[in-house]
Design a protein that fits this description.
2 domains, 2,3-Dihydroxybiphenyl 1,2-Dioxygenase, domain 1, two-stranded antiparallel sheet, 131 residues, globular
């Protein structure tokens, strides 16, 4: 059986606003800005020794986000194993997202990048989605 969870795609950290979040995590702690999407209140920062992004978010709680090949299939596998759906899969700019709970009640945020990754300009502002 192929594992469902591929890697930790992101660790989300709630901030009151992106500018103050960036002032701390980028300017004080040295994490490079990868992308910023003011429309959804999120910014992605690099973790230099990992593919995982540090995502600052104004509207999400602290949580890891697990990369999966296909959110619908991952949700189905977790439910088949005894887990439960907390949030049905929904579209996000880069793909699909869903929230499930494992058999122990732990919430797992799942994402696939079926639409690609963010494309950005020289300032890190999101200009679209691409490969």
């Amino acid at each position: 059986m192929k594992p469902v969870l591929r890697l930790v795609d992101a660790v989300v950290v709630r901030v009151p606003d992106l500018d103050s979040g960036l002032a701390f995590y980028r300017d004080e702690l040295g994490h490079a800005l990868l992308w910023r999407n003011d429309d959804i209140g999120q910014a992605g920062l690099a973790l230099p020794e990992s593919e995982t992004e540090l995502v600052l978010a104004t509207g999400l709680d602290y949580a890891p986000t697990w990369l999966v090949d296909d959110v619908g299939e991952a949700v189905a596998a977790i439910v088949a194993g005894g887990g439960e759906v907390r949030s049905e899969p929904f579209d996000v700019p880069v793909g699909r997202c869903g929230v499930v709970a494992d058999v122990f009640g732990n919430e797992l945020v799942l994402i696939d990048l079926s639409k690609g990754r963010y494309a950005t300009d020289g300032n890190g502002s999101v200009t679209g989605v691409g490969d």
